[in-house]
Amino acid sequence: MMKKRWLVGIFAAVLCLQACGDKEYKPREIDSETDICKICNMTIVHKEYAGEIALKNGDYEIFDDLGCLIEYMKGMDEDDLGKAFIKDESGKKWLDVKTASYVYDKDIWTPMSYGVIAFQTKEEAKKYIEKEGKGKLLSFSDLDTFEWGVHH
Amino acid sequence: MKRIWIFIIFLIVSMWSMPQGQAKTKTLQQLIDQTPENGILQLPDTIYKENVVIRKSLTIKGSKHTILQSANQKPAIKIENAEQVTVENITVQNAHIGIVGKKSQHLHFKHLHFKNVWSGIQLYNTQDITLKHLEIAGIHGHYADKGNGLAIYNSANVTVQENNIQNVQDGVYIEAVNQISLSKNKIQNGRYALHFMYTKNGQATDNTFQKNVTGIMLMMSENAKLSHNRLFEQNGLNASGMTLFQSKNINVFNNLFQNNRTAISAQNLTNSSMKKNTFLMNQSAMELIRSNEQNKINKNDFIGNIVNLRSDGSGSDIAQNYYDDYAGIDVDDNGIGDRSYVALQSFGQWMVRQPAYQYFIESPSVVLLNMMDRQTNAIEKKQLVDKEPMMRSAIIVESKSVRTVWKIILGFGMVLAILWFWRKEIQ
Fold first, then answer.
1. Which residue of B169, B198, B213 is in closest CB contact with A113?
2. What b/e string do you get for A69-103 counting C-beta neighbours within 10 Å, with b at 16 or more?
3. Do B175 and A113 touch (CB under 8 A)?
4. Overall pTM > 0.90
5. Which of B90, B124, B310, B413 has its CA 20 to 30 Å from the CA of residue A137?
6. Quick check: A152 and B176 CB within 8 A?
7. pLDDT digits (tens, 9 = 90+) for B167-222
8. Is B391 an 8 Å CB contact of chain A?
């Protein structure tokens, strides 16, 4: 009998601890037919530049360009943010917006022509700059003060 | 036996001579290279399967059945650093991209037919461009997997006229272009018919846009005139006749919006106006987000729309529009209603914040809510209020006057006919 009580107690404790632990947020699949950018209303046809915000309430906000995602993040309540994602330069992998490194150049095309693309590491970003012979390295904190808009 | 030998020799000679005959047929690239600077190259009814590059001034004129097919993923025609190039009367088919022009000026493309292409024409850093009488039909599939019909980047002085574009991503994509005029084009079944980005001094007149996600998508642009366009049936999910985003000095006038999900969605506009447009049977006629009093909505006709105006609470200058659901009277007979029209609807405002609510738009509870709104919003003074609502629609007035003239002519004719019969009877 005592043993059973212990087992129930441990089970309840595990449940409670799980509830207290960090929730894992994952990006969701983007549908070009139905998803539009929360900021600029553009349909997401270039998924390789897309961004997503997983909200703590389980909702997702979708963005066509990193610039739109950052604009939304600036205006949102930090407590609602689960995790923000952006596609990497290859357009295949989702990256955590806060830990990614970025490269800006006015000649880099993005859906809103903001010209900023993401890389998983700073080294990858530096390699890209070296290979292309152009571009400026940016961190997540730089994006806060970056002048999003016309660079032509 | 002798005859058989002669026949065999004839066959061998024929086979021997055939490859020589083929070698004599010049490729299109060879013909281009042989044409002198500023010369005219007239092409016969031939199918060319190759990709050509033009780096000098010349005119290429095709015949009725001159066809150019791309041999690989490169553009069928590439024009680089050219001073003056005209291409006319050619069908470009089965190409990834039909024509690419870079760092060139005075490019004229007329009477070209693009079939089964991912993208029709792409122009980068070009000036003084004419794109006229082009027929562009994209590949099958979802618009996300297609290129743009015409794409123009970092260019100036562009004329896009009387083109027919369908089944592409954006009919005309315009990025960082100064001075562009688009008129009499028909664009359908794409994502955006016209997509302006960072454009200055653009003008779209007398175009027809049908069954796209959005007729005109105008973003971060300045000094645009959008007039006399017809925008029909942009009524899919997220669809709109025009979406005008973060732009200034945009004038939208004399356009017809019919059967669109949202006729105009205006977001963060500055110093812009929407005048003398007709909004006919749209789900929502006009949506105003982050607007201000510098934006003027005047002399428009709102007829048969479910929601006429909705906003996020920001103000605009709304005056002298006609609303078919206005219930006021005009005692002094000056054509302007004696009390204000209040377009404010709780449900309309909610739809701005939660677009999914549109699916409940004609549900009994929403209809009841709208009726209650009409009673309670009568005292609203600021939000979505037109203090001078028009009593008559401009289009009804026009049609009435036409009808009156016909009635007079018909009546006069009938009187003459009766007189004629009467006189005939007397005689």
1. B198
2. bbbbbeeeeeeebbbbbbbbbeeeebbebeebbbb
3. yes
4. no
5. B124
6. yes
7. 999 999 999 999 999 999 999 999 999 999 999 999 999 999 999 999 999 999 99
8. no
Would you place residue B20 in the very low, low, confident or very high pLDDT band (cuts 50, 70, 90)?
A: very low
* Angle, alpha carbons A94-A96-A100 (nearest 5°): 100
| Residue B293 pLDDT greater than 50, yes or no | yes
Q: What is the pLDDT of residues B354-393, one digit of tens each?
A: 777 877 877 888 888 878 877 777 677 778 899 999 999 8
End-to-end CA distance of chain B: 102
CB B418 within 8 A of CB B412: no
Beta-carbon count within 10 A of B96 CB: 16
Q: How far apart are the C-alpha atoms of B254 and B206, rounded to whole Å?
A: 10
Residue A62 Cα, gap to closest chain B Cα (Å): 14
- Taking the C-alpha atoms of A126, A132, A135 and A137 in order, what is their torsion angle to the nearest 10 degrees? -10
Q: Count Cα neighbours of B295 within 13 Å in the Cβ-side half-sphere.
A: 24
Flag if B220 and A32 touch (Cβ within 8 Å): no
How far B71 CA lies from chain A's nearest CA (Å)? 27
More confident position, B375 or A31 = A31
* Residue B294 DSSP symbol: T
- CB-nearest partner of B238 from A36, A40, A150: A36
* Coil, helix or strand at residue A88: strand
Alpha-carbon gap: B176 to the closest alpha carbon of chain A (Å): 7
- Are A34 and B238 inside 8 Å of each other by CB? yes
B169 to A45: CB separation less than 8 angstroms, yes or no: yes
Give the CATH architecture of domain B24-212.
Answer: 3 Solenoid (2.160)
pLDDT digits (tens, 9 = 90+) for B122-172: 999 999 999 999 999 999 999 999 999 999 999 999 999 999 999 999 999
Please report the pLDDT score of residue B23 as a whole number: 45
Burial per residue of B289-316, b for 16 or more beta-carbon CB atoms within 10 angstroms, e otherwise? bebeeebbbbbbbbbebbbbbbbeeebb
Nearest Cβ partner of A32 from B142, B176, B197? B142
Domain with CATH 2.160.20.10 in chain B: 24-212
**Predicted local confidence at residue B160, as pLDDT:** 98
User: In chain B, whose CA is at the least distance from the CA of A149?
Assistant: B220
Nearest to A41 among B142, B143, B243 (CB): B243
B209 touches chain A (CB under 8 A): no
